[in-house]
Amino acid sequence: MHNRDHEVVWNDKKVHDIARVIKESNRILVGIGGGMPMAAGLNVLPLDKKLKAEEYWRFWYPYIQEQRLVKEVPAIYTQLAELLNGKDYFIIDSNPDGFIQKSGVELSRVYKAQGDMARMQCSQNCQNQSWIGKSHFEKMDKDASYQPVCPYCGAPMVMNVYVGKGFCQEAYQEKNSAYFHFINSSTKEPLVVLELGVGYTMPELIRFPFEQIVMNHPNATLVRINTMYPLCVEENKYKAICAEADIAEALPKILNALK
Ligand SMILES: [Zn+2]
What stretches in the chain show pLDDT beneath 50? Predict the structure, then answer.
């Protein structure tokens, strides 16, 4: 038996414990929360900011450009891709930015659970459809006052991201199924459940299900890296390696220990 104490202190032993379980497991389930872009030094804004319709795109489009279209991928994302290379993995990302898609991971293994700011939807979600924003963004480049409207009902278009009721999930359904397929087919062989920066903004999306998956799996290890909420539930304390650590410090060390 490995000694998997549930202390959250971040030290070299923890680095090596994490590296060991990753080495021993071919399957890795990854959950990325709001702590990941924060650790990468990205500017994370609350998506439910109250704006008048005419202010909406003037506010959000420059942000989308930065977060989704032009900015270079921060190192921790490519480090994560390197860590997963050669493994059978699946990623659930609660962030609507585009960094994980550009990190080098396989897109078929990424579920953007709360949408993607490069897509648009009708603010009324009248037809349960969403669209790639590109052609509209090009019009905004030429005319800052351009306001995209729904081709069906004429309502203003908004980012296809989760801000509560009316979120159009249509574009993510297939990956949602792939995510559940991955979980359901992870039954006996070793599984690492790697949770990065997932707090309590929407714990029912990643944090609580991950605890359940580990609880129900005979051979799973929860690896939780979190600066604010590193502790796991009591039932998982012998199946978890919890680290009160900055992802930007932890990932390079884990990668190094894997080499
Ligand atoms: Zn509509």
Answer: 1-5
